[in-house]
Design a protein that fits this description.
heterodimer; A: 306 residues; alpha/beta; Rossmann fold; nine-stranded mixed β-sheet; 11 helices; B: 163 residues; alpha+beta; N-terminal domain of TfIIb; Helicase, Ruva Protein, domain 3; three-stranded antiparallel β-sheet
């Protein structure tokens, strides 16, 4: 009886398994210095996830933590703009690529830092551009792995990963980064958003990715004149969704037009308006998140060692 | 993927690789016993898939450089896809060299002048956020056609930028 695939030792000389193992080893070595690896996800687009990532990261950094942000939205990167680091040049050292330095000492890496013009899209060179869907998702996963493993993050208390919309992104990240501490779900108080977030929560449960909590954005409109918050959507739905899934409700963020303007100007709103209603919410969430991450690390210390 | 010599029932060993040429990689395998050779030719999608995984058919002789796959695969700005193009990080021919020179903080690179009163106000901004605020105000002033930042322009910028 002829030999089967399993009978043949090795792959004849390419050592593909060895090459993939080496990639994983590099990634693990880089992640060793990072205590909390937190993905910010939504499932649904347009809920303000990137703005929340930047401000939450800044709020955590203002507490004295060493913080990094990886913009994992390769095709629609916005973190570099929101953190005011566009145009910074990256430096290559023997250790890897030094990230851009943002406000409050945040270390930032984004595909945006590799694109020369505002209107340059992310496209990949290929021998065949037709039917590129066959390999594009693999290329994006490889790029994400390189951003994680080749950036000189140094010792960090938190690395925030701003994921693009889509529930499938959770699965991709869980595959690439097995030591993920957990994820934060962002929603808005609209049924269409909750519908998709429920799918993300269910998928996270299936993949055994810890959910650190739910944030509801645009829960109301903050009037600067009256200093009160009026309803935009039906209130109270976020806490109920969190209860349904048995996860922590981290907080509600009212809509404040100054937050949007701050994002455009590249300055985290929370850093310049820490005493506003929205600024205080970010700081409260940052403290609760720190507790949630350290609780998670306490309960599952093996995750941090992966 | 592995290859078995049907005559000898032996696993074949990789002999040489070349390409990609016209989207196809060529890998020659040889039977260690009878020396029978075969050549594996990949189609363009297979070639591309292997490249996107960041692995090398035939094995690696050196460790991968930082962002190797990103920089060798990201299309050249405004350019066309080029087969086999491989951006070396340290090479002067790197299409991304502009993004990889020495890090230069962008603040004060605009040549914008600050009036004394505005400078005093700038100094009062907490140090950790000052460079960002300075940059935003300078950018705003430039967009508005100003060359000197005064108290009034600072007020205007703060109100327009939500600071």
């Amino acid at each position: 009886m002829p030999k089967t695939y399993k009978d043949l030792v090795g792959d004849g000389g390419s050592n593909i398994v060895g090459q993939v193992t080496e990639q994983l080893t590099r990634l693990r070595a880089r992640m060793q210095g990072i205590k909390g690896r937190v993905a910010v996800v939504s499932g649904k687009g347009g809920v303000g996830k990137s703005a929340i990532t930047v401000n939450l990261a800044a709020a955590v950094a203002m507490e004295g933590a060493a913080v990094g942000i990886l913009d994992a939205d390769l095709n629609g990167p916005s973190i570099a703009k929101m953190a005011g680091v566009r145009g910074q040049r990256l430096v290559i050292t023997a250790e890897g690529v030094q990230p851009a330095r943002g406000p409050v000492g945040m270390r930032i890496m984004s595909m945006d830092l590799l694109l020369p013009h505002d209107d340059t899209p992310v496209t990949w060179q290929a021998t065949m551009q037709t039917e590129a869907y066959i390999w594009r998702s693999s290329m994006e996963a490889t790029a994400l792995r390189e951003f994680l493993s080749d950036t000189v993050w140094g010792e960090l208390d938190f690395l925030f990963l701003d994921l693009p919309p889509g529930t499938d992104r959770i699965a991709t990240l869980a595959d690439i980064l097995p030591g993920l501490t957990g994820m934060i779900l962002v929603t808005i108080p609209a049924e269409v958003s909750h519908l998709v977030v429920r799918k993300s929560l269910a998928l996270a449960r299936d993949l055994r990715v810890p959910v650190l909590g739910l944030i509801e954005n645009m829960t109301g409109y903050y009037c600067q004149n009256c200093r009160t918050v009026g309803d935009l959507f039906r209130p109270g739905e976020g806490p109920r969704l969190a209860r349904d899934f048995g996860i922590r409700f981290l907080g509600e963020i009212p809509f404040d037009p100054r937050l949007a303007r701050a994002c455009d100007s590249g300055i985290p709103f929370v850093a310049v308006h820490p005493q506003t209603a929205v600024g205080r919410v970010f700081q409260t969430i940052a403290r609760d998140l720190s507790v949630a991450v350290y609780d998670e690390a306490d309960e599952h210390p093996e995750r941090g060692r992966r | 993927m592995k290859f078995l010599c049907v005559n000898c029932d032996e696993g074949m060993k990789l002999d040489t690789t070349s390409g990609p040429r016209e989207g196809s990689l060529e890998a020659i395998f040889v039977c260690p016993r009878c020396r029978y050779k075969i050549v594996m030719l990949t189609n363009p999608w297979e070639t591309q898939l292997v490249q996107t995984l960041g692995v090398t058919i035939g094995g690696r002789t050196a460790h991968a450089g930082p962002f190797e796959q990103i920089l060798s695969s990201l299309a050249r700005p405004g350019g066309e896809a080029q087969e086999g193009a491989n951006a070396e990080l340290t090479s002067s021919g790197c299409p991304f060299a502009g993004m990889f020179e020495q890090a230069e903080p962008a603040e004060s690179a605009t040549g914008m002048r600050w009036a004394a009163a505005a400078t005093i106000r700038l100094e009062r901004i907490p140090s950790f956020i000052r460079p960002m605020v300075q940059r935003a105000i300078e950018r705003y002033a430039m967009e508005q056609g100003h060359h000197l930042i005064t108290d009034a322009i600072m007020d205007e910028a703060r109100s327009r930028l939500g600071m």
